[in-house]
Records
---
Amino acid sequence: MSFKLEGPVLEGALVRLEPLDHRHAADLAVAAEEDRSSYRFTWVPRAAEVEQYIDAQLARAATGKLAPYAQVAKSSGRAVGATAYWEPRSWLAEDDLSAIEIGFTWLAHSAQGTGVNVESKLLLFRHAFESWGVARVDLKTDARNSRSRAAIEGVGARFEGVLRNWSRSWAPGEDGRLRDSAIFSITATEWPDCRSRLEKRLAGGQVGAQRRALRDRRLFGDPDGA
């Protein structure tokens, strides 16, 4: 395969996806040590492991099979999680990308449910379909991870089935065991509808946030006196 997997900076209203680097380590160490209760089926480094985690992701990137990102919240300028493109596949021509997976995704507890994940997926999907011209994007998770499965379906991916004993389990106490993986995808023909729904969802969330801010100013006063 001659296609070179490189992820450019991708920027939205809520999040900027920056190629992962050691400059993100301090922020990610803080993000990883927030409430970890949602990480039951996902491996997220502890603060002391973040530097080695970044080294490992950059080593995978050097093979051409991974493009890792830090998810940077624009409201704070701080990295609040990570994600990646990986498993590039070419079926029709060696220099053409046919399919890509999005994975290695985690977010700090405080960033979950804020729209950061939704916008990150929109940015990643849009670049894959509209810049690389892929035929499909895959997403996978532990088949038991109902929260992750709901989130993946929530960004418009279609459930395709469960791949048995597909990959390493990250669940506590399951070292050396394999997990069943639920696989989801979006195809190129589905992308326009998916994009429209994600954009509407994000617009609705921003309107809701503006209304809450206005309500709070009316109830508690505007600290800036505007």
---
Amino acid sequence: MPTFVAEVKDAKGNLVKEKVAATSPEQARMILQNQYSSVGEIKAAGINIDLASLSEKLTSVGVKDKAVFSRQFSVMVNAGVAMVRCLGILTDQCSNPKLKKALTGISADVQQGVSLSESMRKYPECFDKLYVSMVEAGETGGVLDQVLDRLAVLLENMQRLANQVKSAMSYPVAVGSLAVIVFFAMTIFLIPIFAGIFVELGTELPPLTALMLWLSDRFIPVKDGGLDSDWWFWPVFLGSIFAASTAYGIAYKTPQGRLRIDGFFLKAPLFGDLNQKTAVARFCRIFGTLTRSGVPILNCMDIVRDIAGNKVIEDSIERAKGEIQQGGMISVALERENVFPALALQMMSIGEETGELDTMMMKVADFYEDEVEQAVKALTSVIEPLMMVGVAGIVGVILLSMYLPMFAVFDELG
């Protein structure tokens, strides 16, 4: 008897895949309908690869996807379109397979009377704690369209901020990769050509030239059609890189290791100031948006802590939350942690005193986002000549090591 598989909804409302043996798809549907509240499309089970499912698993829901969804959802809700119809339209238009599946499940839940925020909470890969909390606050206050619009603005700002940081990192990574490629290419292909000349000259090689020839010999494991005696170099070299990266990953997963590494990133030369300003801008933007949307202060602290992305800042927010629970001011609690700049803390304090904390947080976020943009430009202007000098230095050292023996020969002949 053939086997069929279908996506069904269990008693808890979760979408699961179920197999059933039946003589036909119609019989399989009848069997499943007696066991589950909802039965989706039925397919014959087999060994064929489900490309749609594979694509869904490999795809992630990015900030841009959520920003576009929030903007479109906000416009339709504000125009008075029924929520179920909004979700149906957005599901049909969605190009991200993972988000599309989530919206399909959310739409089914909403039709059965489940709240939008509660349904979104079932899909943490698509809608994180920040998103769900704001939607919940919007539903409670009856201002879902406004909250969705704020979410769209928040996500767009976060995406822009992330792009600015990526642009600062991309240039040194690209030039550094080019420098490594040039070094290996010249060491593997250029130096062996000169090695034969040096043997014919029979002169004593300078230390720099001898070092480069030694490296060249180690980088070429196959010579004259056979395995060289120094074949072990590459396994040791690559193994060392793998071991170092593995050790870093293990250390970063431990609380103390992550605390030290993240602390270094906040104080690192060149990039430390950029990382701190980015963290402050993200904190203020998210905190201001949450409080403006009606999310309680302590819940805001939990959310910004979870998405801080830096252990030092996470611990600082957690300790500050404890002081706030006892009636302390946010600015004073954060000031004790020595993580946030004095200007940001002063503006927070003014916002608390005037009762406009959300507005002041937004202004602080605007200021530091502009600071990040200026820092990226300054960093790029500093790194660009340094990287070019570095590449030129690598090429110059290799060429100098090749010409030094010739200069010695010319001196002897002269």
---
Amino acid sequence: MSTTAPLDRTVTATAEPVVRLSKVTKEYPGGVAALRGIDLTIAPGELLAIVGPSGSGKSTLLHIVGTLDQPTTGTVTIAGHDTATLSDRRLSALRAQHIGFVFQAFHLVAGISALDNVAEGLLYTGLPRAERRRRAATALERVGLGERVRHKPHELSGGQKQRVAIARAIVGEPDLLLADEPTGALDSASGEAVMQLIHDLNQEGATIAVITHDMDIAARLPRQVRIRDGLIAHDTAPGSGSGSGSGAGHGNAPREVIHGVQAP
């Protein structure tokens, strides 16, 4: 039995954006302003980088988009749901049903197989254990680890661990995949393989936001949203003159977006 309240998933069958942030701010005690008025739209099927140095506000933005934190002011809509109107229980359901997370540190459970690690991504769906494991096996095949389903984390390389983490994030077919520094703990060859996988998943239709400080990684993605001092300083999405992307930026020339700071 699922422990989260179900949410209507039909809203994402339309042209609704996966993410829409309007005038979002985030302040912490002591008057620290991490976000100072963010407008951002992510359309279905986009692949983008949210890039910025340490302290720029990109991690806070990740937490807001991932519904791990609430803004001080402004509106956050994820997969058609206004997060301010949802209880904690329904926010948990939103994350479980609509958002997949990939972190630099993998966060795999030691001592259990890759298959069971991925199946945990379906723990709150109410699906029977056998079905969760079947879908987990399919997800591992999808990321190229069909021969490693029985391996435990200590038996896998760093790149393989990150592939397991990606499989766990996508096993529920979320509307949005948030990848936080997905290559940060990997050597260059493993990092290349993980980024290629991210591109492949996007080609299959996944909507993916990669949060990174690495400008080289960001430059290889179709859209780049650069965060500085809690503001969007640059967004390569077409039609983003107000600072919010309104669609995929595939193959379009970058456009400067200035929010009260001098764009480089």
